[in-house]
Amino acid sequence: MIHVKPSSRSLSDAQLHCEHKIMSVVIGKNGVTQDKQEGDHATPVGRFPLRNVFYRADRVKKPDTILPVVALTFQDGWCDDPAHPAYNQKILLPHAARHERLWREDHVYDLIVIIGYNDEKIQAGRGSAIFMHLQREDKAPTEGCVALTEEDLRQVLADGATAIHIHALKG
């Protein structure tokens, strides 16, 4: 299990502990929360399975991992509309409900790990599209995801991670 521990320096700075390595990561711009809500820009606290990996085969090589891996297509999206039955699920585009496009112009979603948050018994409005993905070059905060460098995310996957524990800020 990997551990994400928020930093006291900034709400969006955190450390990811994997095996004997500590990696600098970026989380939601509003830090962590035990009461995740859609659009709150916070990363949910708790223990969650890592479900599967998506990657842009036209940009990056397939990651080495024990998790299921699927190449993204131009039609892949993720529903983030709490009023729609496909909320917090992968969808095919075009799609009538509000959604995120997984095939992006930037490189943030070139490598994505789906965090199993709010996906077994989906509760509308409790947060969607919680992923591990690539950091922006400027290390900008996320909307609730955990963002790493490509090198670090590949290392986490190669080390056999299957679950993540996102800790509350100690204070």
Automatic annotation (TrEMBL):
UniProt entry tagged with the keyword Cell wall biogenesis/degradation: yes
Gene Ontology annotations of biological process type: cell wall organization; peptidoglycan biosynthetic process; regulation of cell shape
Protein name: L,D-TPase catalytic domain-containing protein
PROSITE patterns: LD_TPASE
Organism: Acetobacter tropicalis
Biological or metabolic pathway of the protein: Cell wall biogenesis; peptidoglycan biosynthesis
Domain named L,D-TPase catalytic: residues: 1-171
Residues annotated as catalytic: 133 (proton donor/acceptor), 145 (nucleophile)
A Gene Ontology molecular function term of the record: transferase activity
